[in-house]
Amino acid sequence: MNRVLVANRGEIAVRIIRACKELGIETIAVYSDADQDGLHVHLADKSVSIGPAPSRKSYLNIEKLISVAIEERIDAIHPGYGFLAENDEFSDACARNHICFIGPSGDIIRKMGNKIQARKAAVEAGVPVVPGTNEKNSDVEEFARAAHEIGYPVLLKAAAAGGGRGMKVVFDERELRNFYQQTQAEAAAAFGDGTVYIEKYIQNARHVEVQVLFDHYGNGIHLGERDCSIQRRHQKLIEEAPSPVLDSKMREEMHAAALALAKSQNYTSAGTIEFVVDADSRKFYFIEMNTRVQVEHPVTEMLTGIDIVKEQLRIAEGHKLSIEQRDVQFMGHAIECRINAEDPFRGFMPMPGKIEHLHLPGGTGVRVDSHCYAGYSIPLYYDSLLGKLIVHGQDREEAIVRMLRALGEIDLKGIRTTVPFHERVLGNPDFRSGKYNTRWVEESFLHELNKPVEV
Ligand code: ADP
Ligand code: ADP
Ligand code: MG
Q: Where is the Biotin carboxylation domain (predicted)?
């Protein structure tokens, strides 16, 4: 592999370019009209303009990306996360044009991208799934019967959903009947597929996921779990590993379940198997698989010392996994804060604009993955992630203190960010004691955020 096209922008494009450089691989960046000043454009060996700012016309334009790939004689495309990373047609288009897609085949993406199909695959692999429906139900009466059997509250979930959207919690049959059609219509509009199914809504839930790596020779390993229960609107804000809620038996079972599911699909590349843990019954259930590198992958890299993006590149090149399960060591504790250009005091309103001044933290155990620099203007077209601050410590307490220290070093002027949100979560006694669930931010924390405090 000599030349890789990075079909993404922002921090993940920068992350991939960095890995390629270290492996001696040339990189081609692509950019929209809104991203001419993007850091990925500066860092890549070459960059190519791919069209207007709206993603549909640039970062999601399969035809354009393939034609750039052919013209530039690249060997492989890395899709990053978001955009085309879980688009089966893109993976297929690469294959048709003899371009290596750094990720699994279109068939696997298709299957795992549909949450109903993925549930079926999990059941077949002997992995527990959340009680729910495994067939697409077209009739509200069937839904009502199923929900009655499962017990309320239930989630109406779009099979093709992603990014925390396409989900509606309903607490009784009246709500189910009210929201049934609306959820279908919204899913059809947002994801091009109106298929909806039902899952029991776990009220005291933790989100715990397992990172896996599989090569093309049937070898697979897990790199442990990440706890991503600090969420707002079903979107992750803080992730950590190891998970404070797993005991060693549950941890082992969850890792084994993740490997069993990936193996049953002949999975290749890096992937993540997501579970919800019912903190009351202490059972875990599969919810979905992400067939790509994830935003929070650095947490695992800090814990294991394994470079997940380099492994993806090596696997795509046809190499066997460079590590065996017994070589994977988990050291200490790692935490990641997603720093967004949003105002946490005004309902997380997006805050595009110009970064007038920027100083980023450093020191022992601190990693920053960001595309931001002083003078950079954040375009309003894309998601608001400015970067990720990741820390590693000998234990959870040291990691928390280190994160607070590093957050305090961030000096960013010009726009509002979610840094104050993170500082207050990390300082909160519930977080400190590990006692939180996926609803904690919205139900127990946000009202506190809006109280005035001495800074
Ligand atoms: P997405 O594709 O949007 O990531 P997921 O199925 O991974 O969708 O769900 C996103 C989040 O929604 C989870 O992290 C969790 O917080 C919540 N969630 C999903 N399914 C359930 C469930 N059955 N019970 C409770 N919470 C759930
Ligand atoms: P991860 O666990 O990797 O963060 P998420 O399920 O939170 O995955 O989000 C999946 C990807 O989808 C993210 O990488 C993000 O960039 C992208 N994404 C999140 N929200 C949206 C959205 N509203 N529309 C399109 N893409 C989104
Ligand atoms: Mg998910």
A: 1-446
